[in-house]
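Convert to structure. Protein one:
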Amino acid sequence: MTTIDSSKKICTLINVFTVESEKHLDLFKLLMQATETTMCKIPGYISANLHISDDKKTITNYAQWASLADFLSMLKNEEAQVHMKEAASIAKEIKPVTYSEVWTHLK
């Protein structure tokens, strides 16, 4: 389960995919399948959450990895690369950013 905890030093990936609205379900299904069949089996994987924007033009993947090194290792994984190339063929633009520092506020 995804947990945001400032006392834990994990790597968070926020990956924003821009897509033609008519292709959003294709990309969403690909990202779901890639997560369930490949990403979750790679060492260091913690969680993933996919968000579809209301206008159907953006899908955001909020994923957590045990460390930046684990995330970078995933990028070299051959099975993961197949999924990433397929996602790149559907998306118009992909903007991945990793974060290791967090601050939260709850009411």
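Protein two, convert as well:
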Amino acid sequence: MTTDRQRLGDKGEAAVAKHVPCPRCNKPRHLAKLQRNFQCADLICKFCGYLAQVKAVTLSGPDLPDRILGAAWGPQHEQIIAGIYHGLFIVGFSKRGRLVRIDYIPAHILQTTPEIFEPRKPLGPGAKRAGWQGFVYNLRKLPPIGSQQLYPT
């Protein structure tokens, strides 16, 4: 059974696939969803193999939040250490579920500002997934040219 958060994520991935061409080869409608829980990526370009991460958020106003929940810190940290970064799409929806905006942070920006990735405290011993550790994207640490709004254009 999917959770509300998973449904929002699926909706965000579908919005990017529909409205955004591949950032590498510029082919429209070539971004396709990867299987759920694919490590550190959500979309792949069917033409050039470009990988990207998607984060969907519910907005309370026109602007993106300062911080967005990431996923598991362990796999992300391993990729950072290995120098592997994927572009990040941030998809904003209104409280009623209407697509408001799609922003893009290229992989090279994430690579030059790794402080954007902030590890969270591991879950306590009483938690269902005790010891699991996530991370947060701290968008306040982006340089001014770090992101580009792609939708609406």
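The first helix runs from residue 4 to 19. Residues 17 and 30 are 7 Å apart (CA to CA).
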